[in-house]
Design goal:
Shape: globular
Strand content: under 5%
Radius of gyration: 23 Å
Number of strands: 0
Helix content: over 70%
Length: 241
């Protein structure tokens, strides 16, 4: 008698394979629902996500790659080191994450790590509070586009900024004083025209990824509705009347 042990990794592989097969079968069984979901996702991308995010991503990317980022970092050096216990060069990326959203903040943190201006611990701590969605998306896409109210979007944005500030100040109380100085071998800032071209390139690439996920999940939601599975799951929930 042979006993075959099924490991957790093999179970995850079977579950993933089964999910892919079910999704593929659903597309063939409900092609109209899949097409409608893709169309709805593309409409959301072209009417809400791209118009609200592209300008800010380009502006923030241009700021990051040009000499403006270094100038802002010098202005914010003292408050950043005193309040957040981070190297002064982190001030501009933190401000960038609040204005441009988490994609701009993550790109700025990656640039500082690549130039060795901050350590991995500082970069990891920055990721805890550089996670806000920007004003363009929160107010334009969520507030106006989804909730139908700019005031609600501003309220959500204020809640995000407030929570990020609290997390940053709380973690700073337990952090050591910044010992990492700006690297003397930091990359030379790009000319404004080259910085603008690099910003457009990175912004379009980020939006391409983002819109791909939006369309994909829109198709999945449409398939759940078209197959009736969503309605059946709702009847099992405690909120069903």
């Amino acid at each position: 008698m042979f006993i075959h042990t099924v490991t957790a990794r093999r179970l995850r592989l079977f579950a993933a394979a089964g999910g892919l097969v079910l999704c593929g079968a659903a597309v063939f069984l409900y092609p109209a629902a899949a097409a409608a979901g893709a169309s709805r996702g593309m409409s959301l991308c072209t009417t809400v996500i791209i118009p609200s995010l592209l300008p800010f991503l380009v502006l923030c990317g241009t700021f990051l790659h040009s000499a403006l980022c270094g100038a802002a970092g010098r202005v914010l050096r003292l408050p950043t080191a005193f309040l957040l216990r981070l190297p002064g060069c982190c001030g501009a990326p933190i401000l960038l994450s609040l204005i441009g959203g988490f994609p701009a903040g993550a790109a700025a943190i990656a640039a500082l790590l690549q130039r060795r201006e901050i350590g991995e611990k500082d970069g990891e701590r920055m990721l805890h509070f550089c996670v806000c969605a920007g004003p363009a998306f929160t107010v334009g896409a969520v507030g106006i586009g989804m909730l139908g109210s700019a005031a609600r979007g501003w309220l959500l944005l204020a809640a995000q900024w407030g929570s990020a500030l609290l997390i940053a100040l709380f973690e700073a109380r337990f952090a050591k004083k910044p010992a990492k100085k700006p690297s003397a071998n930091a990359d030379t800032p790009l000319p404004f025209s080259a910085a603008f071209a690099a910003a457009v390139n990175s912004a379009c690439l980020s939006l391409l990824y983002m819109c791909g996920f939006v369309v994909l999940f829109s198709v999945l939601l449409s398939l759940l509705d078209g197959s009736g599975l969503a309605a059946r799951l709702y009847t099992l929930s405690p909120y069903a009347a």
